[in-house]
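Morning run. Coffee first, then this:
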Amino acid sequence: MIRFDKVGFRYESGPDILSGIDVHIRAGSYHFLTGPSGSGKTSLLSLMYLGHRPTRGNLHMFDHNVGLLPRERLFEIRQRIGIVFQDFRLLEHMSAFDNVALPLRILNRPEKEIRNNVAELLDWVGLGDSKDKLPPTLSGGQQQRIAIARAVIARPKLLLADEPTGNLDDTIGFRLMNLFEQLNRMGTTIVIATHNTHIMEKFGHPRLILAGGKLTLETPTEAPLTGQLKHAV
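And here it is:
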């Protein structure tokens, strides 16, 4: 699913943010990405969703070296990826319903299917009564739930989430984590960046730990090894 081969990354002429990242994440696996603030977690996720290309090394996604692909092929790959950003990135002029429906409309799904699936998911995240509201009229936690619903509505092959429970209370947070668990059981590969040790301990998936631009893998003894780190540098 994702293979980093000695990947380094920096913004323009700035210092290295990531250095020598060498990791293989298998299809169908589930990892937490954690580390100190400012360690580069968001930058690592941006490489995975093709927001940036590596400065050095090779990144393979879905068996393609993304550094060699033209822009139109990158767009095709992005359609297989669901993303939950820290700043949500909702379209403020569109209703909650239309924000969540957007990935399905891009895929040209039938409108009846869109109506049914979006309504069901909004009900599940507790926002069925807010489907016609615009994002600026909703709280941060409500916007976050819309962003998560939009990311998962098309059952992506890969789900990337940057602090997806950061603005949510524990009850909603764990409910959404259970949604991610269900998606993973259906085959979606998941990488979640989080500082929430309670969630990481409860769900027990392997942890990719980023510090000083380097990446290491920690596998809880009670959790199976679902990803493979070739070596840490």
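The longest strand covers residues 2-9. Good start to the day.
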